[in-house]
Structure formats: structure tokens, C-alpha cells
Predict the 3D structure of the following.
Amino acid sequence: MFSAALMTFLIFATSMTTAERTSAGRGVDDPTKVSPRRIGVRLYGDATLDASDASDSDAFASAIWETRRILAEAGVDLDVQSCLHWRSGDEQDPCARPPRHDEYSIRTYRSSAFAPRTSGKHRLAYSLIDFGSGRGSLITIDLTAIEWLAGASGSDAELLLGRTAAHELGHLLLRSPEHARSGLMRAVWSNQELHRNRAKDWAFATRQVADIHAQGRPNVKHPRNPAALVGDAAD
């Protein structure tokens, strides 16, 4: 039931409303020391990024490269399957089968009623996590919001899409809806942060990397308090 689940949202602010965080998350120092965790990712949706001259498949491939890079730094390998052209009813297509326990789906769509403002917060994406089991498998990303933020901040839309996917996958891999104060898993991304483009703003913290791998081990029981999985407390 919906009441037994927690929705995790990634939002951005068009301007900073609080003092800039001084502590930032760090990626794993040496990913070769971590036994890779392998997961599958399916890409659904047929909406193309307006800023891209490429096909929807090429645009997503470019975006998912950034997702791969971020997760590779955390010792996670992505096996990506394109389901962009799959249609409901084709049960013979591999994209129609239920996801495995280590497989996640990313769905893109366009918000029809998106009305950008010059300030405030807008939602980029969300994922659903069951509070009891910590399980979740579906990520939904709003391409209209992605494009608008990229334009407002002077950043690359495909790069932003890839980072958004990595953030939401982080929630599912950590089995937690909680956000950190800094790094990739912070709740709010500002224009200034996007324009500054510091590497540590788009990486998992060392504690989060350890938790991602701990959650991937067999017979790991999900704690009742999801905040225990994240290095920093939620905002």
C-alpha cells in the first residue's frame, strides 16, 4: 500500500536560500579495493531531450555514461538495457519480464503542467521505497524539469540527466529515502552548484559507498531506521 512506502524526491533550487555547505561527500578513494557490485538498469520512455540533436537512444546513452561513471567510482557496475521502444502488450520482449532483485528501471516523462518560476524549487525525479523491506526498483525522471534547469544554470542537460539517475539509484541501492547535507545525495541542487561543477558535489560519500556494498550482500537485514544508512542527517 502507498501508506507503507516512502517517496524520495530530488529537487533543485534556482538560487541558494541558505549558507553553502562546507562539508562535501567524497567518492571512494580507490574503487579497486572494493569488490564490484553489479546491477541491471532498464531505460523506459520515449521522450527525447530537446537540447539534443541525437536520437532518444543516443541521448540516453550519453546521459547514462555519467551515471555509469559516478557509480563506478563507488564500485558499482551497471548493465544497461534499452527498453525505450518497448510497448505494453509485447510480453515476448525481455523488457516485459519482472525485474530481478538487483535490477532497476528508469522511466522518463514530460510534465504537461510544468510552469518554471524564476525562483523556488522544482522536482527533477522521484523513486518509491517500501519502508518495511527497503526495496524499490522504479525511478521516474521529468525531462521538462531537467531541460529547464540545464538552461537556467547554463549546464548540459544530458550530464544533469545522468547525475539525476545516479542520485535516485543511490536511494534504491542504499535502501533509504534520506538525503545527505552534501555530495551527490543532497536534496537540493542549486544553479550555483551546477555552474561551479565541483567533482565532490557529484560523488557518493565514503560512508555511503560502504553502505551500498553492505546492502548488496546476501542476508543483510534492512534496518528499521533508514537514516542509519546515510552518512549525514537529512535536511
Notes: Strands lie at 5-13, 37-44, 76-82, 103-109, 121-130, 138-142, 188-190. The longest helix spans residues 56-73.
